[in-house]
Design a protein that fits this description.
Number of helices: 8
Order of helices and strands: EHEEHEEHEHEHHHEH
Bound molecules: guanosine-5'-diphosphate, adenosine-5'-diphosphate
CATH superfamily of the domain at 5-33 and 90-183: P-loop containing nucleotide triphosphate hydrolases
Strand order of the largest sheet: 6-1-7-8
CATH topology of the domain at 5-33 and 90-183: Rossmann fold
CATH class of the domain at 5-33 and 90-183: Alpha Beta
CATH architecture of the domain at 5-33 and 90-183: 3-Layer(aba) Sandwich
Strand content: 15-25%
């Protein structure tokens, strides 16, 4: 039986975490663990697909491995959700802020494969967020947050552990992901 592994995808807003998780689902059939948030949905985000969208009252009725406050909203992930993803597949991915990524490495140890996404010029992220359809006030609020600033840097706790993916160019990042999947013996399903 394959060992159960969790690809923890982390990095600042706009660096491509969701894009990477969608790529792993589409081409490697790796399901993403859906987390909970009190942030309002963006255009095209569906409840139960992008996140479980919660009110502050409903958020605190769930059982979390960890939860964080990020740019004024709560985000949390449950052990039940990971167990459900692993029931479908030996591998799963989850998209977390760097604080959550560190907690996962410390809690699940070798089962976690952290991927840290970055870009050489963080200023380029603003245009990506606008193109994604984020509202201007939400972009300003996000980039002004201490969490955004923090997540631009690889945390000390992940320095020897994380695969760093510089996502300036998507085809280069994709190649790096394909090589990583090969190393874990995970075959590409479609091209
Ligand atoms: N620690 C933790 N972080 C989460 C969780 N769910 C989402 N996040 C992170 O919260 C941050 C904000 O997410 P979001 O508002 O969707 O912004 P995005 O990074 O621009 O897509 C991102 O770094 C997400 O990876 C969670 O359950 N726990
Ligand atoms: N290498 C890239 N070059 C240009 N745009 C990109 C690249 N990778 C992702 N994007 C786009 O940037 C936006 C933010 O990516 P996303 O995956 O939503 O980031 P995150 O989940 O980290 O906030 C999306 O519209 C996505 O399509």
């Amino acid at each position: 039986m394959l060992p159960q592994r969790l690809f923890v995808i982390t990095g600042a807003t706009g660096t491509g975490k969701t894009t990477v998780s969608q790529y792993l689902t589409k081409y490697y059939e790796i399901p993403r663990v859906i987390t909970h948030t009190t942030r309002p949905p963006r255009p095209n985000e569906q409840n139960g697909v992008a996140y479980y969208f919660e009110t502050e009252a409903s958020f605190f009725t769930k059982h979390y491995i960890e939860y964080v406050k990020y740019a004024d909203y709560y985000y949390g992930s449950s052990r039940e959700a990971i167990t459900a993803a692993w029931a479908k597949c030996a591998y799963a991915s989850i998209v977390l802020d760097t604080k959550g990524a560190v907690t996962y490495v410390q809690t699940l140890g070798a089962q976690v494969v952290p991927l840290f996404l970055t870009v050489q010029q963080p200023a380029a992220l603003l245009a990506r967020l606008a193109k994604r359809g984020d509202q201007r006030e939400m972009i300003s609020q996000r980039v002004a947050s201490a969490e955004y600033e923090r997540d631009l840097q690889l945390p000390l706790e992940l320095i020897d552990q994380a695969q760093v993916i510089v996502n300036d160019d998507w085809s280069t990042a994709k190649n790096q992901l394909d090589q990583l999947m090969q190393r874990y013996g995970i075959t590409k399903k479609t091209d």
